[in-house]
Amino acid sequence: MDRPHLFVDISAHGFGHLAQVAPVLEALGKRLPALRLSIRSGLPTAKLRARVAADFSHLPGSSDFGYVMHDAVSLDLDATAQAYRRQHADWNRLVESDAHLFRQLKPNLVLSDVAYLPLAGAARAGIPAVAMCSLNWAELFAHFFASEDWAATIHRQMLEAYRSAECFLRLTPGMAMSDLPRLRTVGPIAAVGGDCRQELRRQLGCSSELRLVLIAFGGVEKQLPVDQWPPLAGLHWLIPQAWQIDQPGFTDFEALGRPITDLMRAVDAVLTKPGYGTFAEAACNGTPLLYLRRENWPEQDVLIDWLQQHGRCREVSDADLLAGRLRPALAAVWSQAPPAVPRPSGADEAAAALLPWLATAGKA
């Protein structure tokens, strides 16, 4: 009997798309222990394996680029426009290339978060496909480029690809997606970390009274001048290793050897940008959050509105962030009454939605 085979395409535009997909794959694995996974992503294999516990075959490569970024909170729209025009100038060949790949691999289902190219390729190959995300690139493309005289054909091809999917699993919180008729809304998706609060403090050699703050801007970095910040007594910062800061009060979080969701649950606050993965995981782990708004990013208001209802959060300005004036914002977010922690029901709901295409694979 053939094993059910799922082909998963995960965007490498930050780490949030992986954070959405991984819990769904875990939920599917519990239902289908024999599930065969092929994952295409531009993310490093080690990063994928840190989140996806099941065995999988990694096909390196990106079928989308999302948006070209100056840093984690600002876009390069000129470069993004050029990249979209290059991709769609060769659109038919790219679709046929994906269709050829799927004819060879013969997956029972294609799942995309949230590239539209594999959806078009699957449709051409006659293989069912499902999209899943809190956003889609067609809606963002229309926001930024709808008034350009070259944009109409590209937007039409994007919408046709998304609409070819069997359904689009719209995560909570998520954008409206009014242009996509086959929406199916599921609950929040977030990994809940293990309780390592006391062990982490012993590892750091700090007292239980010291407050820990994790700085995590996701897969698109934004370096902060933390070495120039004024000393903030009673705080210890967990920062990216790439910043190469070696001074008291700062520890590289990668060197701790703990999953990022365990750190998320163990710290007293996280500092980040609006992004689905970190926002949902902060809420579902009960972690207060400070955020720096992104420049003209349509998804962020939906995320912020949801987190204000289901978590503790506070906006910080770029000026205060650069100067290290964060104590007032931290005090404010810590003084907020914690709401009920939301249940991350979306992974099980998404797995149940995908199951019909996979559960019957190989049966007579």
Summarize the structure.
By secondary structure, this protein is an alpha/beta fold.
Structural features:
alpha/beta, Rossmann fold, seven-stranded parallel beta sheet, 17% strand, globular
Gyration radius (Cα, Å) is 21 Å
**How would you characterize the largest beta sheet?**
7 strands, parallel
Question: Could you list the spans in which at least 5 consecutive residues all have pLDDT below 50?
Answer: none
Number of domains: 2
Order of helices and strands: EHEHEEEHHEHEHHEEHEEEHEHEHEHHH
N-C termini distance: 9 Å
Q: Per the principal axes of the C-alpha atoms, what is the gross shape? A: globular
For this structure, what is the CATH class of the largest domain? Alpha Beta
Total DSSP E strands: 15
Structure report:
The chain has 364 residues and is of the alpha/beta class. It folds into two domains: 5-189 and 345-359, Glycogen Phosphorylase B (Rossmann fold, 3-Layer(aba) Sandwich); 197-335, Glycogen Phosphorylase B (Rossmann fold, 3-Layer(aba) Sandwich), CATH 3.40.50. It is built from 14 helices and 15 strands. It has helices at 16-31, 45-51, 77-89, 91-105, 117-125, 137-145, 151-163, 197-204, 260-266, 276-284, 300-310, 318-323, 327-335, 346-359; strands at 5-10, 36-41, 57-60, 69-71, 74-75, 109-113, 129-133, 167-170, 183-185, 211-215, 235-239, 250-252, 269-272, 289-291, 313-315. α10 packs parallel to α11 (300-310). It is globular and about 60 Å long. The mean pLDDT is 95.
